[in-house]
Design brief:
The chain is mainly α. The chain has seven helices and three strands. Helix 1 crosses helix 4. It starts with a helix and ends with a helix. The structure holds 3-(4-hydroxy-3-methoxyphenyl)-2-propenoic acid.
Length: about 180
């Protein structure tokens, strides 16, 4: 099995030193928007990466008895991360979209019901698109030079811009197809 979680973690600790908690937070926030990970897998993967010599940690004492492990990447880890970054990627499996499954059988329901279901999808996708536009705006406030490869938010921007492009084109298709039912 391909260990994508391995590379997600290596990518994170390559940027800066992080605790297991920081890494989990990243999966709940930014990365989690487009790459889901089972949170229960993160700590076992940190242990495994440490044993493999790809990351290492120092113990930092934050309170009276509060210790936390701060992980950083090793040269060997950087090498594996780079090799993975440079390797061509397979196409993902086609996403399971329940609306597509419904459409496939949609001749079984009246035209009016089809229209209603299209309108519902359009409303939901538009709401999602609004959220993506807002995310892009907040990102632009962090860095006005966002659309340049020199920006340290450039990668984040690229993933977000692909999501915006995908939703815009999905909505265009929904609206065009809805008109076929008129
Ligand atoms: C983000 C907000 C949303 C983001 C990605 C998304 C990478 C959505 C991605 C998707 O739906 O593919 O900040 O950052």
């Amino acid at each position: 099995m391909k260990r994508t979680l391995k590379y997600a973690i290596l990518g994170l600790v390559h940027k800066e030193e992080m605790s297991g908690y920081d890494i989990t937070s990243q999966f709940k926030q930014e990365i989690g928007q487009f790459w889901s990970a089972k949170h229960s897998q993160i700590y076992p993967e940190l242990k495994r990466l440490t044993e493999e010599g790809l990351i290492e940690y120092r113990t930092s004492i934050t309170g009276a008895k509060l210790e936390k492990k701060l992980y950083c990447i090793t040269p060997k880890g950087t090498q594996e991360l780079t090799e993975w970054l440079l390797s061509p990627k397979e196409l993902p499996e086609t996403e399971k979209d329940e609306f597509m499954l419904m459409l496939y059988f949609s001749a079984a329901i009246p035209k009016e019901e089809n229209k209603r279901l299209f309108e519902d999808q359009i409303a939901k996708r538009k709401e999602k698109l609004e959220y993506l536009y807002e995310s892009k705006k907040s990102l632009q406030q962090l860095d006005e030079n966002l659309q340049s490869p020199g920006s340290n938010q450039f990668g984040h921007y690229l993933v977000l811009s692909r999501a915006i492009n995908r939703e815009e084109s999905y909505i265009t298709w929904l609206e065009e197809t809805l008109s076929l039912f008129e």
